[in-house]
Amino acid sequence: MNIINLFNALPGACAQGLIWGIMAIGVYITYKILDLADLTVDGTMATGGAVCVMMMISGHSVWLSLLVAFIVGCLAGLVTGVLHTALGIPAILAGILTQLGLYSINLRILDNKANQAINVDKYDLLVSLRYIKDVPFYRNTILVVAVIIALLVAVLYWFFGTELGSAIRATGSNHNMSRAQGINTNAMKVIGLILSNGIVAFASGLYAQYQGFADVNAGRGAIVIGLAAVIIADVIFGKIKGNFAFKLASVSFGAIIYYIVLQIVMWLGLNSNDLKLLSAIIVALFLAIPYIKTKYAPKKVVKKGENADA
Amino acid sequence: MLELKNIHKTFNPGTVNEKTALCGLDLKLNEGDFVTVIGGNGAGKSTMLNAIAGVWFVDEGTITIDGDDVTKLPEHKRAKYLGRVFQDPMNGTAATMQIDENLALAARRGKFRSLKKGITAKEMAYFKERLATLDLGLEERMTTKVGLLSGGQRQALTLLMAALVKPRLLLLDEHTAALDPKTAAKVLETTQRIVDADNITTLMITHNMKDAIAHGNRLIMMHEGRIIYDVSGEEKKNLHVSDLLAKFEEASGGAFANDRMMLN
Question: Tell me, which fold does domain B2-81+167-263 have in CATH?
Answer without folding.
Answer: Rossmann fold (3.40.50)
